[in-house]
Amino acid sequence: MLAARHHRYDYVSILLHWATALLVGFNWAIAEGRGLLPKGALNSVVLSTHIVTGVTIAAILTARMTWRASRGKKLARAPGLAGAVSRVVHRLLYGLLGMTVCTGIAYVLAHHSCVFGWQIAWSPGSSLHPLLQSFGYVHGTVADMLVILAGLHALAAITHHTLLRDDTLNRMVPILGDRLRVPESLIKAAGTTLARLSSRISARD
After folding, report:
1. Is the pLDDT assigned to residue 204 strictly greater than 80?
2. Element at 186 (helix H, strand E)
3. Beta bridge mates, 114
4. How far from chain centre, in Å, is Cα 102?
5. Which helix (H) or strand (E) holds 157?
6. Best CA proximity match to 123, nearest among 135, 136, 111
7. 58-77 pLDDT, tens digit each
8. How far is C-alpha 105 from the chain's CA centre?
9. Tens-place pLDDT, residues 70-123
10. Where in the chain does DSSP place strands (E)?
């Protein structure tokens, strides 16, 4: 059973979201794996794939921001602290994603990277080159921060779905519906058990 329409994003937003998530995960993984490869043809192919995927992510991010600002469906945030944390996390994710793309472009330009045999010949001015290099050097660190935050974001969404039993994850995975939720009876039993243990510990103190 699908989640109700008013509880989920439109299908374009969902498609762009998961395309971004999958490509970011893939690009991070091949970048990490490339460090284990010796220099040579395979290493160059992996780097070229990484660059092309990064450009694709940049295009999808642009499309996603444009769609969100124009025709994308907007859902209400949770009230109070949970809603505030959600807004901060989403802004950080967008910010880190944009920074990852920009620093990646800076690295490619500063190092005249080669993409499947085609070398990027654009040469920045003498004053701009050191700036591009400095931005390029932090590309990996920013990407790591993005992946870590995205992982925590996904873990929080899974927790909302399975334990808190709300529609947070259904917004982007409407096919889930009420599947994979922990039964309420089990949650109540666990809460009761924890309360009893807490009372016993407090009594001993």
Report:
1. no
2. helix 184-204
3. 119
4. 16
5. helix 139-162
6. 111
7. 999 999 999 999 988 887 77
8. 19
9. 988 887 777 788 889 989 999 999 999 999 999 999 888 888 888 998 888 676
10. 114-115, 118-119
Distances (CA, A) of 74 to 66, 68, 70: 13, 8, 10
**Cα dihedral 171, 176, 182, 187 sign:** positive
> 27, 24, 17, 33: which is closest to 51 by C-alpha?
27
Which residue shows structure tokens 């490619």?
108
Rounded distance between C-alpha atoms, residue 75 and residue 84, angstroms: 14
Contact residues for 122 (Cβ-Cβ < 8 A; gap 6+): 109
Q: Give me the mean pLDDT over the 143-148 stretch.
A: 97
pLDDT tens figures, 158-196: 998 888 888 888 888 888 877 778 788 877 887 788 888
Amino acid letter, residue 128: L
Residue 54 CB coordination number (10 Å): 22
C-alpha 65/C-alpha 176 separation (Å) is 26
User: Among 59, 47, 49, which residue's Cα sits nearest to residue 20?
Assistant: 59
With tokens 């945030």, the residue in question is: 77
